[in-house]
């Protein structure tokens, strides 16, 4: 058979080919295009009737593309009989559309053997649909190696399905030839490889190559590629460009992109437009967007609307919907309903719902029922649940079990858990480990941890070096920085300590400021020290006010000071009363001095 050269190019489905004698590079207006097509069809029909094989093939392809199968078939069969392989391929497409798959495969085989890459691709897909993967691979490889883009993609898809490492090579070939789905899938494969190499760390940036392929696919209109590209750009802080790609994807119908665009707008302070995109995504079945709408309405106090959207999220398969319904009910005091929704989410594997359910049960006095849910949540990775288990075991006096859970939560960055581990290590005498945990907790914002860390550092601080003239030299130490950090967060003992350090270096105003803050917050030591400072400055009446506050809070030395003040004023009965109070409050040295003063005042009163 006299085999003609391959004049075929791909057309949409990958099976139908249009002979290349017509190569339009522009899209004319519809009227002009129809006129041109009619003229071209007439020209090809006349040539075909005159016996032109190529015209038969082109005319058959035109009619096939228009859906005129009856008109196309005789022309394609005539051209095929004359050795036109493009016609053989298109005849296979026609027969496949009629439902004669086996006969179609026969013509595709003839065209493929004659060198048609498009026919080899169609034949390969035919065999894959029949489950004959070896034959499918053979023909798809023939197509791919001839430079057929869809053949390369189909081969990559087959190899990927089998777990063959060569899949990426062919996916890359198809992507490089402009196949947008291949570009997207290649980017996803590169992303997955990066995730595996970094143990699934979601915070890891996509590799540069993956981003390039996402960008190529997105530029060709691939909506999921546009979504992923937007996500990459958002993580990198390039919010403007991220928003553009989300918008492109969302307009093409990608609900997740509409949802992401909503969050981007909300973060920019545009809640109204965010709600518009969330609504669009939620109506397309995006549970995350429905949850976001629920939260928006809950913030506005529109609880009924919020509940409706949370239910919509749940119906969309988003377990967060049930959890959020539980939160909503809990806020309204509907404990029974909150428990119901928490249970539903917890049984579906929602770890924070399991933790919330356990807390609810614990608040209701059901510690036995709470513990398994805490355990389930903690094992699923809930840091709060691990910390709560620590509290549960500590409350029973099970220190080892409590410490184990505290350590687990601390390792995940839980500030209060790190504080508890630090305290336990201090109790055990392991100062080095205690310091490590206290630094973590203090760095996380715990005032108590900052104070305890400061005391550890303070205890090992060397004495202040003396000036060469004998005057002390003050150098700001790290422990002072931690004391001040704790004090600025309202830690009363830290405020007293910062006041003492200020007083030691002669800064009376600063000392008084910190003592007063501590005293007004209820610190009896702060009130006592403020009284001492005021008394030294000659303001004994005001000092007595603060000592009274300290003594009323149980400060023995303040009571003794008041006894001395009243004794000096000649108010012996009041002095004796405060001396009695000092004796009862202690400590021992104070009680001893107060007892002597009390006895002396008693003798004076009875004289």
Structure description:
It is a single chain. The chain has 607 residues and is mostly helical. The protein is built from 34 helices and two strands. The chain has a two-stranded antiparallel sheet with strand order 1-2. The longest helix is centred in the N-terminal third of the chain and has 20 residues, at 30-49. The protein starts with 7 loop residues before the first strand and ends with a helix. Residues 1-28 have low confidence and may be disordered.
Provide a quick synopsis of the model.
The chain has 607 residues and is an all-alpha fold.
List keywords for this structure.
disordered N terminus, 34 helices, elongated, 607 residues, mainly alpha
Assembly state of the chains shown: single chain
What structural category arises from helix and sheet content?
mainly alpha
Number of helices: 34
- Head-to-tail CA distance between termini: 145 Å
Shape field: elongated
Topology, number of strands: 2
- Gyration radius (Cα, Å) is 41 Å
- Tell me about the biggest sheet? 2 strands, antiparallel
Tell me what portion of residues adopts beta-strand conformation: under 5%
Q: Which residues sit in consecutive blocks of at least 5 with pLDDT less than 50?
A: 1-28
Mean pLDDT: 89
**Percentage of residues assigned to helices:** over 70%
Strand order of the largest sheet: 1-2
């Amino acid at each position: 058979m006299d085999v003609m050269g391959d004049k075929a190019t791909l057309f949409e489905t990958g099976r139908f080919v249009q002979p290349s004698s017509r190569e339009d590079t522009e899209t004319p207006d519809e009227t002009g295009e129809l006129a041109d097509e009619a003229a071209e069809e007439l020209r090809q029909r006349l040539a075909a009737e005159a016996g032109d094989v190529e015209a038969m093939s082109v005319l058959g392809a035109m009619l096939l593309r228009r859906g005129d199968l009856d008109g196309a078939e005789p022309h394609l069969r005539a051209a095929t009989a004359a050795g036109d392989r493009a016609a053989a391929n298109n005849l296979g497409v026609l027969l496949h559309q009629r439902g004669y798959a086996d006969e179609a495969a026969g013509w595709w085989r003839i065209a493929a053997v004659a060198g048609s890459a498009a026919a080899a691709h169609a034949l390969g897909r035919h065999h894959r649909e029949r489950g004959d993967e070896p034959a499918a691979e053979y023909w798809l490889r023939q197509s791919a190696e001839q430079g057929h883009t869809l053949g390369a993609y189909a081969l990559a898809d087959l190899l990927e399905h089998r777990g063959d490492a060569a899949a990426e090579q062919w996916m890359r070939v198809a992507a490089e030839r402009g196949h947008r789905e291949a570009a997207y899938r290649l980017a996803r494969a590169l992303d997955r490889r990066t995730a595996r190499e970094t143990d699934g760390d979601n915070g890891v940036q996509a590799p540069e190559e993956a981003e390039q392929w996402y960008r190529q696919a997105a530029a060709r209109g691939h909506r999921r590629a546009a979504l992923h590209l937007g996500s990459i750009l958002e993580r990198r802080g390039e919010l403007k460009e991220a928003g553009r790609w989300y918008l492109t994807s969302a307009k093409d119908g990608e609900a997740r992109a509409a949802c992401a665009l909503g969050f981007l707008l909300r973060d920019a302070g545009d809640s109204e437009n965010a709600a518009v995109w969330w609504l669009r995504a939620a109506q397309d079945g995006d549970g995350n967007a429905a949850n976001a709408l629920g939260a928006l309405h809950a913030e506005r106090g529109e609880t009924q609307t919020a509940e409706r959207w949370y239910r919509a999220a749940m119906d969309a398969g988003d377990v967060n919907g049930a959890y959020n319904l539980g939160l909503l009910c809990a806020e309204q005091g509907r404990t029974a309903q909150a428990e119901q929704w928490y249970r539903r989410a917890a049984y579906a594997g929602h770890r924070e719902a399991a933790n919330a359910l356990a807390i609810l049960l614990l608040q209701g006095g059901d510690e036995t029922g709470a513990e398994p849910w805490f355990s389930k949540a903690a094992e699923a990775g809930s840091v709060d649940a691990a910390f709560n288990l620590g509290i549960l075991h500590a409350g029973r006096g099970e220190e080892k079990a409590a410490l184990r859970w505290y350590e687990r939560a601390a390792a995940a960055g839980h500030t209060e858990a790190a504080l508890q581990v630090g305290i336990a290590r201090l109790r055990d005498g392991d100062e080095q480990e205690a310091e490590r945990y206290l630094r973590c907790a203090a760095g996380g914002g715990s005032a108590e941890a900052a104070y305890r860390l400061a005391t550890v550092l303070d205890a090992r601080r060397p004495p202040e070096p003396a000036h060469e003239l004998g005057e002390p030299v003050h150098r700001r130490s790290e422990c002072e920085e931690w004391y001040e950090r704790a004090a600025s967060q309202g830690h009363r003992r830290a405020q007293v300590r910062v006041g003492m350090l200020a007083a030691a270096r002669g800064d009376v105003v600063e000392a008084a400021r910190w003592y007063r803050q501590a005293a007004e917050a209820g610190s009896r030591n702060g009130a006592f020290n403020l009284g001492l400072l005021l008394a030294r400055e000659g303001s004994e009446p005001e000092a007595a006010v603060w000592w009274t506050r300290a003594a009323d809070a149980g400060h023995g030395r303040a009571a003794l000071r008041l006894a001395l003040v009243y004794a000096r004023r000649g108010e012996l009965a009041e002095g004796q009363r405060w001396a009695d109070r000092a004796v009862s409050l202690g400590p021992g040295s104070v009680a001893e001095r107060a007892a002597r003063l009390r006895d002396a005042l008693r003798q004076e009163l009875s004289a």
